[in-house]
Design brief:
The chain has about 400 residues and is mostly loops. Strands 1-2 form a two-stranded parallel ribbon. The chain is built from six helices and four strands, in the order H-H-H-E-H-E-H-E-H-E. Strand 3, helix 6 and strand 4 form a beta-alpha-beta unit. Helices cover about 15% and strands about 5% of the residues. The longest helix is centred in the middle third of the chain and has 14 residues. Helix 2 crosses helix 3. It folds into two domains: about 240 residues, 3 Solenoid (Pectate Lyase C-like); about 140 residues, E3 ubiquitin-protein ligase SopA (Pectate Lyase C-like), CATH 2.160.20.80.
Length: about 400
């Protein structure tokens, strides 16, 4: 087992944070100014034209940021849930993996912003501008985006379950692989011959009519390219060199100054561990806070009491793993394999379990308050928080599927 632990540690040390996750410590003085007074923050922006402010991982939950000038600001993994950003300027901002759940973004300008894997679940975005924004794999479940402008926006693999896109401009938008578009409200939305549908085909008047949308024909244009914004403190030269090196070797680049130390318990906070193989590893009490573990292989791993707060585990294999007493607050576990996993006394408060396989999983005494079980798979072997076996009626009440 020790060998496996060493292997995992070595794996982490051999991984760098992804290019959209490079900036580390945010500027505490700038954050204090923003929290204290938006007018003072905007005046500071005017006094320092062209300066990029680093607010990565900033805690701005429920903050009133109406009219704030946050253009080009680094807000990677920032906590903005419940915040008010009405008419704010977020043009070109880097909001990769930011939590923006149930926020107010009325008439907010997010043109050219990077919102890759951002969580906009239930946010009010009426009249917001997303022109040319990158929303790849973003969660827009139950978001209200009436009359919003998504022209030339990248919505590749975005989740659109019951998103209200009535009257939205989707001309030239890339919807390739977008999930649950059939459940989205497209009444009066505008599509064009340059709009890419989830199937990869271009939109047509027939498809638009079937979805109560409008269709317009415009000059043919090629696919829009989406360049991730540079993190704070990284020059164009540094970024280019890193990208070339990464392409040449096929491995991410390690920044020694920004590499996190591991002492006592394994610390993978904010780590980029896509497709990492940690099957069977002893990761008790490990810190995976906001880590990106998409499609990671954790079958049979011991994650007892691990901190997976807001971790991104979409498509991860956690079958037969031990997640007892684990913290999975707001974790993304959509399409994850949790079959025969032990989740006894785990905290799954507001966790996203959409499409997850929970056959044979043990959820005894787990906190599932506001957890999303839509299309999750349960069976008679699944143990509910009550200690009882799952039933088809329990599954139906939560929008889940039941397999006998």
């Amino acid at each position: 087992m020790k060998q496996i632990e060493h292997k995992v540690v070595a794996l982490f040390l051999g991984l760098a944070l992804s290019t959209c996750q490079t900036a580390f410590a945010y500027d505490p003085e700038a954050l204090s100014t923003l929290k204290k007074n938006v007018l003072e923050w905007n005046s500071m922006r005017v006094a320092k034209p062209g300066e990029t402010f680093d607010l990565e991982e900033a805690e701005l939950e429920d903050a009133n940021l109406t009219g704030a000038d946050l253009s080009t600001t680094v807000l990677i993994s920032a906590e903005l849930s419940g915040s008010t950003l009405d008419q704010a300027d977020l043009k070109g901002a880097n909001l990769t993996m930011a939590l923006i759940k149930k926020a107010n973004l009325k008439k907010t300008d997010l043109s050219g912003a990077c919102l890759v894997k951002a969580n906009l679940h239930g946010s009010f975005m009426k009249g917001a501008k997303f022109t040319g924004a990158d929303l790849q794999e973003a969660n827009l479940r139950w978001a209200v985006a009436e009359n919003a402008d998504f022209s030339k926006a990248n919505l590749n693999n975005a989740t659109l379950f019951e998103a209200n896109l009535a009257g939205a401009n989707l001309c030239g938008a890339n919807l390739l692989g977008a999930f649950f578009i059939q459940q989205a409200n497209l009444n009066g939305a505008t599509l064009s011959n340059n709009t890419i549908l989830p199937s990869g085909e271009k939109a047509t008047s027939q498809w638009s009519t079937l979805h109560n949308a409008q269709f317009v024909r415009e000059a043919e244009s090629g696919p829009t390219s989406y360049t991730p914004p540079l993190p704070a403190g990284v020059s164009v030269h540094e970024k280019s060199s890193a990208t070339l090196n990464e392409r040449a070797t096929g491995k991410p680049i390690i920044d020694k100054k920004k590499q996190k130390k591991i002492s006592g318990k394994s610390n993978f906070e904010n780590g980029s561990l896509n497709n990492a193989d940690m099957a069977g590893a002893d990761l008790r009490n490990a810190n995976f806070h906001r880590a990106d573990l998409k499609s990671a292989r954790l079958r049979g791993a011991n994650l007892q009491s691990a901190n997976l707060d807001r971790a991104f585990l979409k498509g991860a294999d956690l079958s037969k793993s031990n997640l007892s007493n684990a913290l999975l607050y707001r974790a993304t576990l959509s399409d994850a394999n949790l079959s025969d996993a032990n989740l006894e006394k785990a905290s799954l408060f507001e966790a996203d379990l959409e499409g997850a396989d929970l056959t044979g999983a043990n959820l005894k005494e787990a906190n599932i308050t506001d957890a999303n079980f839509n299309n999750a798979i349960l069976s008679s072997r699944t143990i509910l928080p009550s200690g009882q076996q799952a039933t088809s009626s329990w599954a139906t009440l939560r929008g889940a599927k039941f397999r006998d």
